[in-house]
């Protein structure tokens, strides 16, 4: 199955919320406007011929020639009330107030007073989402630097381990050599999980005794990656946010230590976000940008949530590159982020 088909299928909670929201908004229209009465009296209608079919269902002349046309879609005049409904629906779909307002205003431009269908509205929304997201849809940049050091940050449970496993596997498939460092040394379960992913991906995972200093593990991993001429070093980190000062110090120390080996490292700092947290993802970006020099985002768990609209809010507010999205727990359920594919799937087109 192509990733786009998977995305369409797995984004269905978000897309059915948005898609059916737009259908409802349009169907809330009152009766179609009354046509002005013809100035010339119409000729008396011929007496209806007895027929099994109601006359209204008979196809017109063009329909008889080209085959029967689909029933016309309901339409609603785009006015202030409809825009307000649209804005509320976008906010409910986790796009955030500012983004919802901007998107609504852009959709209104040039369309006020026109009677539009749900399909036209979906198309207009997909265009707006694509416009916002195109500048941030950038795959993880790869540098000739060996090893390219990728620091992976994010709160516990956001999907860091899984993302590292999936990335490692994809890089391996692309012929790159990879080393993983299990930098959350406090959580034995996290280390074990990373080892399982490493096995699946065929990538060595460097671990340290529970509770030991993650920075010294990072240094050892850097030494090994250099010695082996590895293309990439992926470093997992702890995600405890209860004590930000500790976490900040831990991350800063990892960076200090790897810079002893390569002053330009880390080359990427990926923040992994869980789509099911909705608007909370915005405050996580704020927090992690203060803790680390976040260079790009990965959004996981877009399957199984109706809150996928938050990715639009993130793109609009921060403009940070979105490198990849996750739509499941399997190794091939992560792929580069494509703005048009995402927008189309999100609105249910
Ligand atoms: N449905 C779904 N589940 C995912 C996705 N990505 C990760 N998960 C699941 O989310 C859970 C947490 O993922 P982890 O990769 O362990 O998250 P973490 O950030 O490393 O968390 P810690 O190990 O607690 O630090 C696991 O059960 C994963 O299988 C995704 O894209 N979709």
UniProtKB/TrEMBL annotation:
One of its GO terms (molecular function) is GTP binding. GTP binds at residues 154-161, 236-240, 300-303. Residues 146-293 form the AAA+ ATPase domain. CDD domains: FtsY. Residues 1-12 have a biased composition (Basic and acidic residues). Its EC number is 3.6.5.4. It catalyses: GTP + H2O = GDP + phosphate + H(+). Its main location: membrane. Residues 62-133 form the Signal recognition particle SRP54 helical bundle domain. Keywords: Cell cycle, Cell division, Cell membrane, Cytoplasm, GTP-binding, Hydrolase, Membrane, Nucleotide-binding, Receptor. Belongs to the GTP-binding SRP family. FtsY subfamily. This is Signal recognition particle receptor FtsY.
